[in-house]
Amino acid sequence: MLIDLYQSYGVAQAPTTPTGDLPRASHVTFWVQHVGSWEARSLSLRELGLSTPVTVVSCRARSFSVNNRPPPKYPGHVPLNFVERGALAVGSAVGALLNPRRADLIAACGEATATPYFIYRLRDAMLSDPTGRQILRERPRITSETLPLPYLRSLPENSVGRTYAAWLDREGVSPDTRDNVQYIDDEECAYVMQRYRECHDFYHAVTGLPTFVEGEIALKAFEFLNTLIPMTGLSMFAAVRLKPAERERFFALWLPWAVRSGLASKELVNVYWEKILEKDVDELRSELGIEKPPDMREIRRMIREQKKREKERLQQSA
């Protein structure tokens, strides 16, 4: 049996002793994958369910390749090697810059660039906070089933839940559109990234920022200073795609707001949104240290009306 196992690893002939016999021992050493590397593990005869004597065979581990991936660590997990992760990070970042509305590319870039340090830092921030630890234990998900919109709309005016539902209705967004995490190897860290992703719309609702590109870049700047996830910082490069007037507003108005609030606010990943749906949103912003930014939609509406009046005045004077 062990000779067959040895040959299944691609070795033509098992090692022998100087007398030509196969070596024997009471333990068998296998190579197993552990946290991205291979380590030797010695199994006793009792653990293997075998009787003595046992033939000792050294099993050579295959290297990580496209045709020989380690098994997934959670449903949907796609293990990547260093080269694949780097290619995914670069490709998705470039694609997202060319088309900032490609949520799938933004998600892939976020996962590819969050390891090895940044997602662990965010996980540790949750572990150091009582509410964060509770979230990691219970692992809630934010969907239209766990947070039904009819219930949210019935909550008191200016409550967190009512504000969230109103923002979803105004922007035409559903909480069910978030992609599942695939490329983060650690299962707990994968949940942390999923939690951040599903809470993103709550950040929108609390700040009032809309979903068009100008609003997304402003929120990503805030998120970068709050979470340090690289993708949120890289998203600010999309400012080059803004119109000149929008870019001027971003650097004059939204970026200073993001710096002030991002540095002053508490870790938003530790907010258990499902538990505070009836809380007053202004009170929550005060507790979290978030300054409410100017209404971006209202500013854009006023600018459009001003341009319209100027155009009409020019037509009348012509």
Number of domains: 1
Helicity level, as a percent range? 40-55%
Which stretches are low in confidence, meaning pLDDT under 50 for 5 or more residues running?
Answer: 1-18, 22-45, 50-61
**Largest sheet strand order:** 1-4
Helical segment count: 14
Structural class computed from helices and strand pairing: mainly alpha
Instruction: Report mean pLDDT, rounded to a whole number.
Output: 82
**Can you count the beta strands?**
4
Radius of gyration computed on alpha carbons: 27 Å
Tertiary shape: globular
Task: Give the DSSP E fraction (strand runs of 2 or more residues).
Answer: 5-15%
- Biggest beta sheet attributes: 2 strands, antiparallel
H/E element order: HEEEHEHHHHHHHHHHHH
How far the N terminus sits from the C terminus, by CA atoms, comes to 95 Å
Q: What are its keywords?
A:
membrane, 4-hydroxy-3-methoxy-5-polyprenylbenzoate decarboxylase, single chain, mitochondrion inner membrane, 318 residues, disordered N terminus, two-stranded antiparallel sheet, zinc ion binding, two-stranded antiparallel ribbon, 4-hydroxy-3-methoxy-5-polyprenylbenzoate decarboxylase activity
Short description:
The chain has helices at residues 2-8, 45-48, 82-98, 103-114, 118-127, 130-138, 149-153, 160-171, 187-207, 213-227, 230-234, 244-264, 281-288, 296-317, and strands spanning 24-25, 27-34, 37-44, 54-55. The protein has 318 residues and is mainly alpha-helical. The strands form 2 sheets. A two-stranded antiparallel sheet has the order 1-4. A two-stranded antiparallel ribbon has the order 2-3.
